[in-house]
Amino acid sequence: MNIPVSEVDIQAVRFWKRVIIKGISLFLLVNLLFAPVNPLPMLGKISAYNRIFPGRVRFPYGEKPDLAYNMSLYSLQAMFASHELAAGKKPNDEYRVLLVGDSSVWGYLLKPDNTLAANINALSLKVVENKTVRVYNLGYPTMSLAKDLLILSDAMLYQPDLIIWLVTLESFPIERQLDSPILQNNPSSMQDLIRHYSLNLDLNDPRFSKGNFLNDTLIGQRRALADNLRLQLYGVMWAATGVDQYYPPSYDPPQEDLDSNVTFQGMQPPELDAKDLALNVLSAGSLIVGKVPIIYVNEPIYISHGQNSEVRYNFFYPRWAYDQYRQLFKQTCQQNAWRCLDEWNLVPADEFTNSAIHMSPLGTQMLATELGEAIISIHQP
Questions:
Q1: Which of 18, 75, 146, 277 could cross-link to 44 by cystine, CB 3.0-4.6 Å?
Q2: d(CA 65, CA 62)
Q3: pLDDT tens sequence across 238-282
Q4: Which residues of the chain have pLDDT under 50?
């Protein structure tokens, strides 16, 4: 039995056919335009933080966003836009200090008011022209000087008066520099730094995210766009609770009894070769900051007294490597006339939490006191 097709039905089919074709064409056009224009950096700067929600006191980072109200993402623009540093014009009476470094600076297992930056701010320091010292936490988990340099290069837009860069030997090996996902997913920015400052890093390192036309389209960038949107949504809970990190109910303390292996990152005793360390990344940092003072700080480490502690300080460091690193750090500071502090043994072993660099609130407070004195000393005759 044949069912007659009315003229109305034919017109409806034609209408929806045109709608679908136009929709597909528009979608393809948007994708074609999205790739060459690359609006992601601009979109990353659009943020509800510092407008609807208070700015975060540390960069977004976290693997359990439903518990931490925080998450890791790859957009440096979105990270800075969510930070309290981007709140507005720098106050005239503010002496602005930026802390750069690894997860110990970011404050792993520390609540926002227990971080290194918060502890220095609690000292209520005053410096030249009675300006109030205000410290901002730009630490970011993962150990890489190149990662710190990338953050520092963007941070100079915020008119710092002083940079404090905390480092440790684990952040120096050249082979480890590009392990950080934040670097791998911002290849053009990092490659620009490598070229401009002649860093001894490979411009074509396979760890860099490979860009292509498809990856740069709206479809290819959908995760980055979704991550930025999710970060905005978590601002509701950040504003309501002040929670920005998941705190496990328990954790393993730093390893006390150690392996007898004396290898460090594939390097063998008796000599630590300066060519294997990214010392010129520190030099690049001094060039980026220009006339802004910078203090390089060798951060405190956990010192074991257990088995094999005569050959290793902790899980990270055999003694021979770390001792030679401290000498290289000192020599490099002297040769370049840099301001440097070596606080490696400042904090007692029982004031570390779950690793050889993560300090307790008290240990962090001890370091903050030392750094506060260093800030004041810069302005003393």
A1: 75
A2: 6
A3: 999 999 999 999 999 999 999 999 999 999 999 899 999 999 999
A4: 1, 3, 30, 34
Long-range contacts of 318-323 (CB under 8 A, 24+ apart): 318/261, 318/262, 318/263, 318/264, 318/269, 320/262, 320/269, 320/270, 320/272, 321/169, 321/262, 321/264, 321/267, 321/269, 321/272, 322/169, 322/264
Which residues have CB under 8 Å from 161's CB, separation 6+?
95, 96, 97, 292, 293
Rounded to 5°, angle at Cα 168 from 76 and 345: 135
Assigned token pair, 283: 């030099």
Spatial separation of the C-alpha atoms in residues 222 and 217, rounded to whole Å = 9
**Distance separating alpha carbons of residues 10 and 15, to the nearest angstrom:** 9
Model confidence over 27-43: pLDDT tens digits? 555 455 545 555 555 55
pLDDT value at position 220? 53
Residue keyed to tokens 């003072």:
293
- H helical segments located in 174-278: 181-184, 187-196, 213-216, 222-241
Question: Which amino acid, 209?
Answer: S
pTM over 0.70: yes
